[in-house]
Design a protein that fits this description.
Elements (H helix, E strand, L loop, with lengths): L2 H23 L6 E3 L2 E6 L10 E5 L13 H9 L3 E5 L2 E2 L6 E2 L12 H16 L6 E6 L1 H12 L6 E5 L4 E2 L10 E7 L11 E3 L9 E3 L2 H11 L9 E3 L5 E5 L7 E7 L9 H11 L1
């Protein structure tokens, strides 16, 4: 081998290492750095290849790594054979905390939709995730981010499952197309009430007020988006820990369900199994 060939071979080896080492280092405690931010990931022990995944967007003031402190949630998702992917939100200017920029009043430091899509594509390429079986979910503000992504890019993920957060006011007037959505909310949620809440401003009539959206109004938008025939839900289930309302006579391939639980602003016990059962039955 000539000296030039040795240099080329060494360059190729270093290039390969540069590409592969981030994937090897990525975990639920070590950030996977990509352009625009980072994500954390845990892979299941199951032998199914490629594995499905749940991508979870953290709430206001949370973090990508912090999602993995909820061991009951993460371990159940892993036990069901799903990879868990948790992107890091963007930093709110001047506040030093992480959130998601989806509202005109929230300064945006990056294109959140493009970043989350990049996390998806990188996870597929680096970790062998099944691109057709990724459920996008999130809690609180993370749930709102999920809803805005579903509205703008309904085909970006197989389905969407926000918890404790959906649209804010002013509500969107139109979404791009039918979606598969399961919205979960606490009956007594005081942080993100079902009717919404004024966070800044005199009251809901203030044109400059910052107001969380009305979950029932959001469901009306989703019914219109999914071309559901009737306002009233088609089926109800109240025998278990969740009270379900399901709209079934809607656009082919779409899905819309509301799951309420007796509690406040939290991810309820049993949510992982309930959401995955819904996802797998689609």
């Amino acid at each position: 081998m000539t000296g030039f060939s040795r240099i080329c071979a060494l360059a190729a080896l270093l290039s390969t290492a540069a590409i592969s080492s981030p994937a090897q280092a990525c975990s639920e405690t070590t950030a996977c750095e990509i352009e625009g931010g980072a994500y954390f990931i845990a892979l299941p022990d199951a032998t199914e290849t490629p594995p499905p995944a749940v991508m979870f967007l953290h709430g206001y003031g949370g973090s990508g790594q912090g999602v993995f402190r909820n061991r009951a949630l993460v371990d159940r998702l892993l036990d069901r054979g799903y990879a868990v992917i948790s992107p890091a939100g963007s930093e709110r200017p001047g506040r030093g905390i992480l959130s998601w920029a989806f509202h005109p009043f929230f300064p945006s430091t990056r294109d959140e939709g493009a970043f989350i899509a990049a996390v998806r594509d990188t996870a597929v390429a680096r970790h062998g995730i099944d691109p057709d079986r990724i459920l996008l979910t999130g809690f609180s503000v993370g749930g709102s981010m999920v809803s805005y992504l579903a509205c703008a890019s309904p085909d970006a993920f197989a389905a969407y499952a926000p918890v404790g957060g959906n649209f804010w006011r002013p509500h969107p007037t139109k979404c791009a197309g039918p979606v598969r959505m399961l919205h979960t909310h606490g009956w007594t949620d005081g942080t993100v009430p079902l009717e919404g809440r004024v966070l800044r401003g005199a009251d809901s009539r203030d044109p400059d007020a910052l107001i969380q959206g009305d979950i029932f109004h959001a469901l009306n938008i989703w019914r219109q988006t999914n071309a559901c025939h009737f306002l009233k839900a088609d089926s109800f289930e109240t025998s278990g820990p969740f009270w379900h309302r399901t709209w079934e006579r809607c656009a082919p391939g779409s899905a819309l369900e509301l799951a309420l639980f007796p509690g406040g602003h939290r991810i309820p016990d049993g949510w992982a199994d309930m959401a995955l059962d819904w996802f797998e039955a689609l």
